[in-house]
Amino acid sequence: MFLALKEIKHEKLRYGLIILMIFLISYLIFMLSSLAVGLASENTQAIDSWSAKKIVLNKNSNISLSQSILTKKDLKDDDIGKNEAYIGQVAVVVKSKNRPSVSAQFLGIKKDQFIYKDQVLVAGKRGKGKTEITVDSSLRDKGYRLGDKISLNGSARKYKIVGFVNNAKINIAPIIYGSFATWRKLRMVAPNVAAAAIVSKNANYKYNYKDAKTYPIATFINKLPGYTAQNMTFGLMIGFLFVISLIIIAVFLYILTMQKMHNLAVMRAQGIPSKTLVGATVSQSIILVVVGVIIALILMWVTAAVLPAAVPMSFTTTIMIAGTLGMLVMGIIGSLIPIRSILKVDPAKAIGE
Amino acid sequence: MAVIELKDVEKIYGKGDAQVEALKDINFEADKSELVLIMGPSGAGKSTFLTIAGSLQKPTSGQVIINREDISKFSDKKRNSLRLNEIGFILQAYNLVPYLTVHDQFVLVDKVKKEDNLSKEDLDKLLEDLGITKLVKKYPNELSGGQQQRVAIARALYANPAILLADEPTASLDTQNVEEVGKLFKKLAKEREKAILIVTHDPRLEKYADHIYEMMDGKMSQKK
Ligand SMILES: Nc1ncnc2c1ncn2[C@@H]1O[C@H](COP(=O)(O)OP(=O)(O)OP(=O)(O)O)[C@@H](O)[C@H]1O
Ligand SMILES: [Mg+2]
């Protein structure tokens, strides 16, 4: 630690530059991770808030809610208890005077089933009848208010916002909760259609009959349009950033070590144990990473404070801790490469050159 | 009683045709309070002799006895601690850690060797003797060659070694400084009872030496 700190203090510019790079990379890692988690959660928020474990869809729907239709015949024998709920889904455009248009997902739900009952209202009340709806609270950020009358897909009939709900997003779109009758009308389904899907909180729920088939919720989420591709892209970018930081730390420390080879030989000749010299390099690497990451965390904190709520980022402690640990691991691995050279220093080289 | 003794030491570099016999049948000893010069032309084996006497490398054959212990079979770790405790090196250049102030050069020794270093008073006196008391806050690159040399001497003495080894310590000094360093070494040998071995081309140091050895093609002969 002594040598490590003294050297950093004496070579402020060199070490300052490497800290700058580590800071920039960790900031980028934190931002991308927050964005990845934020976007992922906007895909699955509603599903998570329902604590859904299983979903029953039409087996020919390619596990897609928007393609799924279950007829009364398919659902002839279904067993709907307090853990199950019908849903009917259709993509809609929300319009209202003096408000921006919003693309949303309309979900028809039934009043006696858990999704309706479990709505987490942040304002207003649950909808009753055919024309009352509750909507995701993100619409409030866009200027919508309780009592607003809106049209769905240009419908002549107006629907009235009576409540705002938290965590009501699916596939990055806000949810409009309304009645099944409205769903039938918007989706223009045949009279024999009962629902688009059944959602269950029971992990052991199973209903396979005719075209109805039960899927684990994870299977359904991974099939959400763009979900898997998006997560893989983010994963790859974040992974690359870790690798880049590893390379930067390793190369930097290696070059520095090479430059002071003669000096290391002299210290070894003077009897300074190699573990002291190795310790200095490892602690330097840790100091660089810790300082860089702390600056990045401070900037993240500022970023989180000034960023508008509409940006889909979630700044979770888990991300910050995981990112910090990841960078530390990279720093330690990065310092292993110069260590090999330090251990091989020949003290006899200190003399006669 | 000899502090350092080499018996029938040979050192061969390389293998086969590229083989160089750098040291041949060396027998040497130095006692405490003795100042010994090792002289000779380039390539004679002086530096090789110094690295082996200083336990920086092992001889190909023969014995190196320091404080009555044969160190030629010591592990790397034991040789390392022997160097830390018993041997002080004064090298031609770069012998100070560039990113440590003069003061911190001594702190570094304290960090790795907890006992038996010079006391605060002894160090102050030594710095005074060397005329470098005012330089303790400076970095090596802020010092002149002669000042660096004297700091290196203080650094080597700080761990209180029995033996001091110097490689061309006067190479970058003018005549006046050479005389000063010669006197200083003589004084250190007598007052601090060190055995001091100096490898040098510099005939100006001869008058301070108790013994002078001449090296030629790996062989050593005593001149004084
Ligand atoms: N590491 C090494 N590998 C191979 N040969 C070496 C090595 N070190 C020294 N030699 C050879 O051993 C011989 C003695 O070298 P040494 O460095 O001891 O000479 P020197 O007396 O110190 O010379 P100088 O006055 O030029 O410093 C030379 O022939 C040299 O080429
Ligand atoms: Mg030499």
Automatic annotation (TrEMBL), chain A:
Transmembrane segment boundaries: 15-39, 234-256, 277-307, 319-339
Span of domain ABC3 transporter permease C-terminal: 236-347
UniProt keyword list: Cell membrane, Membrane, Transmembrane, Transmembrane helix, Transport
Topology in the lipid bilayer: Multi-pass membrane protein
Protein task: Part of the ABC transporter complex hrt involved in hemin import. Responsible for the translocation of the substrate across the membrane.
Family according to the record: Belongs to the ABC-4 integral membrane protein family. HrtB subfamily.
Record note on quaternary structure: The complex is composed of two ATP-binding proteins (HrtA), two transmembrane proteins (HrtB) and a solute-binding protein.
Protein name (database record): Putative hemin transport system permease protein HrtB
Organism per entry: Lactobacillus gallinarum DSM 10532 = JCM 2011
From TrEMBL, chain B:
One GO BP: amino acid transport
UniProt KW keywords: Amino-acid transport, ATP-binding, Nucleotide-binding, Transport
Pfam family, one: ABC_tran
Cell cycle is among the record's keywords: no
One GO term describing the cellular component: membrane protein complex
Gene3D superfamilies (alphabetical): P-loop containing nucleotide triphosphate hydrolases
Domain ABC transporter: 4-224
One Gene Ontology molecular-function label: transmembrane transporter activity
Family from the record: Belongs to the ABC transporter superfamily.
Protein name (record): ABC transporter
